[in-house]
Amino acid sequence: MSTVAPDKLQARADRKTRKRQKKKDRIARSAMQALQELGYANTSLRDIAARADLSLGMLHYYFEDRTQLILHCVSLYKAAFISGLEEALSDASGREPVINALANALATSIIEDASTHRLWYDIRGQAMFDPAFRPVVADIEASLMAVIETAAEKTGSARPGVGELGYALIDGVFRYQMQNQVTGTPRNHESLANEMRSVLETLF
């Protein structure tokens, strides 16, 4: 019979869980480069292990399969992206400041993180065929809609459905800008932000 108090056992279990989560996060960050370069369809666990300088056994220990690892990578990145948008809006108040803050944050993300956004769109498309991707994609899109709803409230434009409508409008422009940044003619921050600002002014 254990003589360790239940609260100490729980604390120990919590520490173990946090340690495992941190390790999974580190592996996911290391795997991102391979996924960004090759895309979902062309990347195997062996490719990820080689690019991330990890053993295949290590990957299998923390992630059951490639799908689980890729979903963790996308969730980790998009959480940071959403957090950045929320932070940009946190100090903005009033229609113009909110629109400018969001437009600048989106433009900055396209310039700095286009290759990672490309992976997100790859996975989002895959979700139409593979049910395993749908819950994570749905959660991420719900979070993005919530950001838009927050912006709408701050601009006095809150109304039913603004999150879904705003997401559809903003995402269409964002995806086109990102695609052009990767495969076409890259544009500067001011140009991207101005285009995004026009969309936001229509929405709000």
Question: How would you characterize this protein structure?
Answer:
The protein is an all-alpha fold. It has a single domain (6-203), classed as Tetracycline Repressor, domain 2. The chain has helices at 6-38, 45-51, 56-62, 66-90, 95-126, 134-155, 162-183, 189-203. Helix 5 (95-126) crosses helix 7. The N and C termini lie far apart (64 Å). The mean pLDDT is 89.
Give a brief description:
With 204 residues, this protein is mainly alpha-helical.
Envelope shape: globular
CATH class: Mainly Alpha
> Low-confidence parts lasting 5 or more residues at pLDDT below 50?
none
* First-residue to last-residue Cα separation: 64 Å
Report the radius of gyration as a whole number of Å: 20 Å
Mean pLDDT rating: 89
**Fraction of residues in H or I helices:** over 70%
> What's the CATH architecture?
Orthogonal Bundle
- Total domains: 1
CATH level-3 fold name: Tetracycline Repressor, domain 2
SS field, number of helical segments: 8
Strand percentage lies at under 5%
